[in-house]
Write a structure and sequence with these properties.
This protein is an alpha/beta fold. Helices cover 52% and strands 12% of the residues. It has a single domain (20-186), classed as Rossmann fold (3-Layer(aba) Sandwich), CATH 3.40.50.10490. Strands 2-1-3-4-5 form a five-stranded parallel sheet, with helices on both faces.
């Protein structure tokens, strides 16, 4: 079997194991954030940070949510890393943004954060702060979900079907799942471009 065949089979297995009700619960949380006039803060590290930037665009433009990703401001991110340390970059950004109970965090992560293993401690401290404030927590995470899964109000865990491919599948499925969210009729407010272009009938 070629690697391409293997990878695509693993992708199919993951889709079969995903729980649609977890996705529905996340959408309900997102609709509630918008309804109460809250903001959505999307947090991710590495490839998940790039996904966060893309997702901000979609939730703002398609879903009509006020939405931000701290990693989009590289100057502040690197200043805080240099001056205060990596573990606090997100929580201090959220303090500066006056995080409120009406707001929500959306965590995109492979491992979900783990203080004991010192993996994504900045996600953990941000989540702890969100819980103190009373903001809602939504997650799209891989592996066992880490700290995110233990505190989230709604969470989709990307199942592990091959321990050698946890990261690529987790980050790929972040995009699959958030696109499901913004395409959901309960959340979608604005039509996407190609779907809005009328197809002219053949003469």
């Amino acid at each position: 079997m070629s690697y391409s065949t293997q990878h695509l089979r693993e992708t199919s297995e993951i889709i079969a194991q995903l729980n649609p009700e977890d996705c529905e619960q996340c959408v309900r949380e997102l609709v509630a954030v918008r309804t109460r006039g809250g903001r959505l803060f999307i947090l991710g590290v590495g490839g998940s940070a790039a996904n966060a930037s893309h997702a901000v665009n979609d939730f703002r433009k398609i879903g009509g949510l006020e939405c931000y990703a701290p990693t989009d401001n590289v100057s502040e991110l690197t200043a805080r890393t240099n001056d205060e340390g990596w573990a606090s970059v997100f929580v201090e950004w959220l303090r500066g943004s006056r995080l409120k109970k009406e707001d929500a965090l959306l965590i995109l992560s492979v491992g979900g954060g783990n203080l004991e293993k010192n993996v994504s401690p900045n996600l953990v401290t941000a989540l702890q702060f969100a819980r103190q404030i009373g903001a809602r927590i939504i997650g799209i995470v891989g592996k066992d979900g880490g700290f995110t899964a233990t505190v989230a109000d709604a969470c989709v865990i990307v199942p592990t079907v091959n321990p050698n491919n946890i990261t690529p599948h987790s980050e790929a499925f972040q995009a699959v799942i958030w696109h499901l969210f913004v395409s959901h009729p309960d959340l979608k407010m604005n039509q996407t471009k190609w779907e809005s272009v009328a197809i002219k009938p053949l003469a």
